[in-house]
Fold each of these.
Amino acid sequence: MSARILSGKLIADAIKAEVAADVADLREVHGFAPSLTVVRVGEDPASSVYVGSKVRTAEELGIVSEHIHLDADVTDEELIATVESLNERSDVDGILVQLPLPKHIDEREVLERIDPEKDVDGFHPINAGRLTQGYPALAPCTPAGVIEILNRSDIPIAGRHAVVVGRSNIVGKPMAMLFLKENATVTICHSRTKDLAAITRQADILVAAIGRPAFITGEHIGEGSTVIDVGINNFTDSSRANSMFPVDDVDKRLATIEKRGFTLVGDVNPKDAMEKAANFTPVPGGVGLLTVAMLMKNTVEAAKIRRGL
Ligand code: NDP
């Protein structure tokens, strides 16, 4: 069997087109454009790429965007003052503080200072609490994107067994809550779970959000299941390429490692997933593309809610 590839690009493009239409409608009918402000601290190269892509995508969709870049040695007080000034600005609908923050900053304190109504990343405890209680909330973009992939690929969730590996506040926990909201039966696994493979093999839908390259292998994957790979990791070991990638992908991956020094892999061994699963999200080209699209959707949602629309 060879799994159906669930293309993140097609789904992200569809969501972005819907958001652009929504923005055009808000401009025309209500006379305003939603706006997103991204705050970046320091010079983390990955953060710089992510922020660039968020700001660019916002502009493409007609969302007004602003990028505030603070020095790496900014104090907690200065960063919180920036967040609070954005809370007060009526022209700002969405605020995103790009993570990770430098070690000396109290990340939790900063995220808790964002007005929950402008918290387009969905990380504020008020939004996490609302999600847990099953009330409308701005949901974290990556797990919300996973639900979109499943719904738009006609993969049923209600009544199915969803197993989530990972319990972070950013991916694992909100993923589990969103699955509950969709009436799945949910199991959450983590680093202290015993006999992980015995549990993950029972999944109709398996989500891997672990942060370890190709950690999930054939023994973890049930025949005919849907495997959603959230992980994003650099993979550099050419000698393992044959056991990692499907035959038709090996040469391309080796060429990428040769050229860039690494290729991107998720938390799932793609060769094994292609052999055992019925549906599989690739890395790159899967869940990652949904995260930015869902951020745009949340920004428009926040703008509408704040204006009572
Ligand atoms: P965290 O490091 O915050 O969480 C990792 C989770 O995996 C923890 O709950 C941890 O368990 C669990 N874990 C670690 N080792 C094992 C193990 N051996 N067996 C079972 N569970 C284990 O990571 P994130 O949730 O932030 O991110 C996860 C992955 O998703 C990363 O690769 C990240 O890059 C990627 N990511 C991708 C995004 C996208 O847009 N596609 C967005 C966000 C993240 P414990 O709690 O017990 O330590």
Amino acid sequence: MKFIRAIPAISRETKAARSSGHPVVLVPTMGNLHAGHLSLIRRARKLAGAKGTVVVTLFVNRIQFGPTEDFASYPRNLKRDTALCREAGVDILFAPSDAVIYPGAHSTYVVESRLAKRMEGASRPTHFRGVTTVVAKLFNLVQPDAAVFGAKDWQQAAVIRQMTTDLNFPIRIVVAPTVRERDGLALSSRNAYLSPAEREQATVLYDVIRAARLAVKHAPAPLPAGVLRRKLSRLVAKQRLAKLDYIEFFDPKTLEPAKRIDRGTHIALAVFFGKTRLIDNGRL
Ligand code: AMP
């Protein structure tokens, strides 16, 4: 595995990989790797093939965090991540510093202006601008054939797909399923912030998705969004340490809000436990 921290080296190495004629597949992450990330890496290897190149990036992207969010405390574990990538058969690990990605004079941002406004965008107004900017930069640096993202961040994947189309990046966007703990909690670096009591109650996010699935399954006709939202909000309210940010229903492709909830409608939610904000989503 090649470990790279500088721009000229990542450009040179990925150019050489492309010229081999085999696929180059990118997996962007913020590090502190868990089984969710590793499943993305396995998917990337399948797409790249044995002779292709899997590129993983580790970069805690300052500009996608709001001013009061957890950029400073976000878990960083370069040594462990490097070992995990090596074990997983990654070909190139790109772990640039902040100054490499955002030199002092950086002043250009990439903004997706429709899908990025709702849900996560409403709660975290500058978040997706940070995501699309760094992903566009990584696309330019690596120029992969495909890039793999997790369904855990459904809206993020939709925003990136839109940006890829709009800016004519010749890159296939692949979305891999959410990896969960045994009790249903989606794996996330932020789970590490939870106290034992919060961790116990954090299963409520998946409970909400399951309850919504059941409600849709047993409803004789499509359910009004308001009715289902109120029912599911009560489930969250039962958990003493949980504070609901949002529950939204939408079309999984267009992200258009759904007024009537049916099979195939998508649900997404965000819940605070103290300062820790968890998200999840699923198809109903
Ligand atoms: P992050 O390091 O949290 O920015 O995530 C990097 C990539 O891993 C993103 O595409 C996420 O959607 C994906 N990811 C994070 N958690 C999971 C999970 N539990 N299952 C599958 N993919 C995930």
